[in-house]
Amino acid sequence: MIPTAATPMVAPLDAFGADDLPAVGGKAANLGELLRAGLPVPPGFVVTTDAYAAAVDGAGLADLFAGGDPDPARLRAAVESAPVPEGIRAAITDAHARLGGVPVAVRSSATAEDLPGAAFAGQQDTYLNVVGADGVVDAVRRCWASLWTDRAVAYRRARSVDAAGVRIAVVVQAMVESEAAGVMFTADPVSGERGRIVVESGRGLGEAVVSGLVTPDHYALDRQGRVLEHRPGRAEVVVRPVPGGGIVHERPGGDEGRSPLPDGVLRELARYGRAAAEHFGRPQDMEWALAAGRVSIVQSRPMTALPPESVPLNRRQRLMATALSEYVPVRPYPMDVDTWLGRGPAAMMRDITHEYGIVGAFDGFLREEDGVVVELVPPAPHPVPRALLTPFRLVHKARTRKITAWREDPRFLDFLRRVEELDARDPAALTWPELLAVPDEAIGLLDPCRELRLDYLPGMAVSLARLTAALTLLGRRGLLGDLTGGAHTRTEDANRALQDLADLVRGDAGLLELFAGASPEEVLAEVRGGRVGAGTGFAGALDAFLREFGRRETVSPLLVSPPTLGEVPESVIGLVRVMVDEPREEDPGSRSERALATLLGHPLLRGRRARARMTRWVRAAQYGMAFREDSHFFFTAPLPALRRALLEMGRRLTRAGVLEEESQVFHLRMAEVAQVRDPGSIPVETADRLRSLARARSARREELTGVRLLDLARVYPRRSDGNALAAGAPAGSGRATGTVRVVRGPDDFHRLGAGEILVCPTTNPSWTPLFRRAAAVVADTGSMGSHAAIVAREYGIPAVMGTGNGTSILADGARVTVDGDTGLITEEP
User: Taking the model in full, what pTM does it have?
Assistant: First the structure.
């Protein structure tokens, strides 16, 4: 770390701009840009990163950076106690004298700070009302040391910022002894609306607002600064400077601190906010201060975690959003988009809808920035002229491709054979070119699946429509769920296998005790270690289940980044625990046969031919439902092999030092990985580029953690529902009262108690066993045709889909009533 001749150790703030970020850090570079744009920024100077480097070298601390993973605690203590080189001390003293020796604010300005995707707000230290040259020098040294606080180090690690490469500058500005101060967002940080400016204000110094010490005055302004909304604050604390240096927290008396900002000040703030956003080309998070009637801007950084701007959806977009929010419940990785999501099932669904005259259904529904998906944009599919022929084509397909024969189709049998061949390969034994070829091969296996769906889905649709119409005419529409629930599916096979595992637990006192009191991870460790359940063969039965059904997705059939069921056996333990306390479930086929007997007892079905015809229609509809369910099960069969291959690529790139861990490969695209010709000999520029891409995308995803892919309020508008806590689409009739249990994913399966209300974001087939334990189901997404609704109706429990906010509104442990006929969820005493 040797200072460069081109950059002085200490220089005026207005000497720098965006191009100087390595020398002065994000905060100082942004302030320099604001000065160039003509905004009122208090005068000051910057102690550059070269000064930090010189101080570290001068104190003999360079060895603490060895190995690229510095010890934060040792560095902080060493930097905080290190003497400042005389040349730097003299430069700081001289610059402070040129400011007039006034009290100053001393703030950190790290090279990874105040950047898009990594604001670092509050991670390094700030010192206000610093008095005297010696005080300024000491505050600068403490700012340097704050680069190594636990919170700053943790923040950088979460955003994959290389610790050894981070440097810190320090901004010193004339102190603004403000009467009021606060923050301003040039876009609404909650809704993402770009035409709305949000100002939060408190009396005294802005520290009270920034650090959350007060409930500030809240203003929502239009672009011209006109007040759209005002919520008075509570002025719990006022932070003021102390004449001898430092600050004090005071309790205001009377109405002090409650006076609103004048309209002229709000208009001035809005004008500066617009100017800053236009200058930087993106919404800004700014700090401001008001003194003697003048507004000063003391900080500006890009807004992070800003939701996409909410735009109303039309009816077709809402319909697509209902499906897509179920299929893509979490943010896809670049590798998802490049492989399974972009070229697999979503492409298959796009081709099928296009074949039948609907275009645009699955095109361009993900918006990316810098390689990271930031928003799900529901498309608006529309018919083209050939859609007029679709009814005739459906009927023709249904007549020529019998739904009962799909399992014997040579294309399906060949598909299974090729999947087994791919699944049998050991990725670790493949050469690098062979490994790179696996994704194309896995995705190519979906070609016959596309043909099978094109040929047999019409038969499913016609058989279900025919049975529904017949039941409606006979006044027996309520039997539809039980009749179609009798289909023999792989999901039902999985449920029976889970029940067999639960029977083994009930038959072993040690296992039963273990399941009752231990976590799924502890149960798995005891079973795999042979310490419990050896006599019942539970471990072998569990492994057999995972071999047979472990290919199932845990999150979405469209994503390759989440683990498959076989990779998280503890979630299977959670499902078995759900079933242990319940009696063995009646075979759905038995319910179906009773429903058929009830139907055939209808007065209009007394004739032998009528009964035989209705029985055929019921069987055809069952085969249709089985095709719908089982085609999903089988067509995701290439997913485990694809995932294993990608993770093996990640392992080899990790060994080569390109990635920090194998799962980081999902931050890359296949085309980027394919740039590597030989993992054992990667050019430095290629390794640096891939490493930089993975880190930058990781940081961007971390920033977006709290931002939803799609604002569900746009899909499921809030109903006028009286005293209801939440409301959605009625999807399973009946009423049930119970305790809310929020289940967000497989890790929570074991938490659902018998008779509780299952509240979830969405579901997929692996969730099915939970429905036999739940009293009702409430989902954020979905409709009457979603997986959760279908299964709920099969189990005869109330269901409400598409609440939009059920998982955030309904508190875990609350007692509620779910009305599946009205779609309302109400609170119970």
Answer: 0.82
